[in-house]
Write a structure and sequence with these properties.
11% strand; alpha/beta; 465 residues; 11 strands; globular; four-stranded antiparallel sheet; 40% helix
């Protein structure tokens, strides 16, 4: 009898861990179902109506990834703002893009816990950035994929740009759902062309973009790569938009109008009144490329994004922020346009190293402001020194971190000889209205001085021959 009781107790003790395990599994399944539903409601969809902007933080501790109430509220608001399927984007985008079922990456479902879903290497990275090797610091967990939608970075950008115009996200300013983060602004240029322009130019069909030369060359390159037509309406010799001619040139095939402000190579800003006039007069998306906006006296066109459903602004950290090496840029526009860009982009287009450096820069705008003041002072000084040279015919006004100037003759030879001696500027004489022109970036005081010294010395050598 005692033997039977003892055996019965042993069987109960053996079953007890199984009961605990079953209970744990049931709880986990229940919790995971809830989490999956939360993520599914926030992930990209086949319609341009649901932007996934959830904050995918990286954490190795096991958790059920419960969103904070603030983030849940943000997502509800973002989905509501992006819910219109009757906006300009839905009318202009290619039908196959509108019906696209976006790629669903592993981090759309979970970003914390024991992550065995994305075939990452859980043993860790083979190496780290040089400054993180000794002492070893893998705080960014480089073995894990990055956040697909960069919500913290978008918030920082919104706060920075809204503060510049006295707005907030809740008071007429831009919100995270208005922001796309990409590999420089070049990724955004290519995506916008692919989303809105049907190929077919070489076969006599397809859509077109409009450019205003002289302007940034990548618009034309991306259009050609995507077999899209190019409508050119040149700037005036003083680098102003010819708005009546632009509006007259617009056709039903014109889907995108690129305006570079401040211009490259012109260095001239376009008044916001011009952008307003064009945007209110066309059925196309007006894209204002503001790579150099932080050097300009003309305010950013981001203030127009909440007023127009067809204005998209491109910005970058490559210029004023001095972070060209991390390749980080932004498209700021209507939520439905940004939704389509998120649907079409590669799943993990912005890496963790870039995101971390970009966030640090946007948190430390005091350094940005100090550098801008120094560069503007150097720009003014260098412009005066160029004007004083008798062989310089014109120094164009600048709203950028460079100067465009015209010499009397031999600009190409001048540029090449100075470059061969170790100081590199850029010959722009092959651009419209830029005959015998050189573009020079504003460097440090020492670099600027050496350029001016070589410019004067080499020009004398070339013209004495």
């Amino acid at each position: 009898m005692l033997h039977n009781i003892s055996a019965y107790k042993c069987r109960r003790l053996a079953i007890l861990p199984l009961l605990v395990l079953v209970s744990t599994i049931q709880f986990a399944v229940s919790s995971n179902r809830r989490i999956i539903e939360e993520h599914r409601s926030n992930a990209p969809s086949s319609s341009p109506t649901a932007i996934n902007l959830i904050n995918h933080s990286s954490n190795k501790t096991f958790s059920h990834n419960k969103q904070s109430s603030a983030e849940t509220s943000d997502m509800t608001e973002e989905k509501k703002e992006a819910s219109s399927s009757t906006g300009r984007a839905a009318k202009l985008a290619r039908p196959n893009v509108l019906s696209l079922q976006p790629y669903r990456c592993a981090r759309d479902d979970y970003s914390t816990g024991i992550l065995l879903d994305a075939n990452e290497n859980a043993l860790g990275p083979a190496s780290l950035p040089t400054n993180s090797l000794d002492p070893y610091d893998n705080g960014m967990e480089l073995e894990r994929y990055p956040c697909p939608y960069q919500l913290p970075l978008k918030r920082l950008l919104c706060d920075h740009r809204n503060a510049q115009v006295g707005q907030t996200a809740d008071n007429g300013g831009i919100r995270p759902e208005n922001v796309f983060v990409g590999v420089g602004s070049d990724e955004a240029i290519d995506l916008l062309i692919r989303i809105f322009c049907t190929p077919g130019h070489t076969s006599g069909g397809g859509d077109a973009i409009m450019i205003t030369p002289p302007t940034y060359g990548m618009y034309k390159v991306c259009a050609n790569v995507n077999d899209v037509g190019i409508q050119s309406v040149p700037l005036t010799p003083d680098f102003d938009l010819q708005i009546p001619e632009m509006l007259q040139a617009v056709t039903p095939d014109t889907k995108l109008i690129f305006i570079c402000s401040p211009g490259n190579p012109t260095a001239k800003s376009v008044p916001l009144s011009d952008v307003r006039l064009i945007a209110s007069s066309v059925n196309a998306i007006v894209i204002v490329d503001e790579a150099y906006v932080d050097f300009s006296s003309v305010p950013s066109a981001t203030s127009l994004v909440t007023d127009f459903d067809n204005v998209v602004v491109l910005q970058t950290l490559s210029k004023a922020f001095g972070m060209a090496g991390i390749r980080c840029g932004f498209a700021i526009g209507p939520a439905d346009v940004i939704q389509l860009m998120n649907n079409v982009k590669a799943p993990y287009n912005v890496n963790k190293l870039t995101s971390d450096a970009a966030a640090n820069a946007l948190k430390n705008t005091a350094t940005l402001d100090r550098n801008i003041r120094e560069l503007l002072a150097q720009r003014e000084l260098m412009a005066k020194q160029l004007v004083a040279l008798d062989f310089v015919e014109r120094v164009y006004p600048s709203d950028a971190n460079f100067l465009l100037f015209r010499v009397k003759q031999k600009a190409n030879e001048l540029y090449k000889t100075i470059a061969d001696r170790g100081i590199v500027s850029r010959f722009r004489g092959n651009e419209l209205h830029c005959n015998e022109c050189i573009r020079v970036t504003i460097g440090t005081a020492e670099e600027n001085g050496k350029f001016l010294e070589q410019l004067e010395e080499v020009y004398k050598e070339l013209t004495a021959q």
